[in-house]
């Protein structure tokens, strides 16, 4: 009898210990992503541009839509490269030191997903509608899994806009006028091939150092969308703007994948919905302001020229077949995207 009581006591103690540890484990899992002081899930979101820049507009819209949709989240936006350049913020997002960033899609992200440099292929899209169709369709379908393999949750594509050349030396009307000029580009083989095909020099400079580089004459010019040129006040250090629209530039809204995976399915859906809404509204806002930005540039003394676009298209038509470019983006993928938007 005593032996039986002893066995029962041991069993009861074992059950009590098991229940206690199981209960504690569940509570810890529930609180994984929450800030202990507020009970909210905090998202630190970094951008390189100023408060009027396209990436910051997307960030503020994401914050607005997410916080309106759920009391679970608190989004803190850090513009003006407060958290570093695009490379540092992308690395921070991948490592989880920050939860989210919005960066130029074909700028720093090709370090992890080379195929996103399909957006650097010149004259891939005729207009914004075709760009949106490809970005939200075939490009997302093909590349989102690759972003996840690299440690990112790619939420949506926002807009930078079609990129144009500006410089401080002379008016550019045809591709021949590009000869001998130096331009700041993003550090990637496609951009070097682009400038080489135009008989100009490519100089890699980080975006947050670009204004100073232009001001000090380290480069003659740069290439960016109209909104970027206006909001970053590049007109103060650039005289000529040539509307060639060589590539369509997007921004990527990316989140640390482990952070996203720890959210509940319902929270994940809310985050994705907020990103989709923010991207759609941001595109609309940026597009609506383009005419206003062009007027600002003219009013601030820039000479704006409509180029002979055919000469630029002809000079760059075979870039996607160059060996250094093929290593990053297969010609088959380029052709597939072109067929998709026909």
TrEMBL record:
Signal peptide: none annotated. Keywords: Signal. This is DctP family TRAP transporter solute-binding subunit. GO terms for molecular function: carbohydrate binding. GO terms for biological process: transmembrane transport. GO terms for cellular component: outer membrane-bounded periplasmic space. The lineage of its organism: Bacteria, Bacillati, Bacillota, Tissierellia, Tissierellales. It comes from Peptoniphilus faecalis.
